[in-house]
Amino acid sequence: MIEAYVLIQARIGKLTSVAAEASRIGRVATAAVIAGPYDMIVRVAAEDVDSLGRLVVSKIQVIDGVTRTLTCPILHL
Question: How far is Cα 73 from Cα 71, in angstroms, rounded to an integer?
Fold first, then answer.
């Protein structure tokens, strides 16, 4: 199992709908609107790195209003 934080930038006026849709994705554990260069952060879980990539590309990046994502895998040191 791999977990990651995905930072999301949204188009102006779309953050509310992006947040609502991202929250409904099955592998999203938490979702929060934040201040700073990114508008939202979600914590996701996937079986492996390939599944994580597919989740971000096919579920998060396709949400209407998403303009950019940054995926940060969690390291357990």
Answer: 6
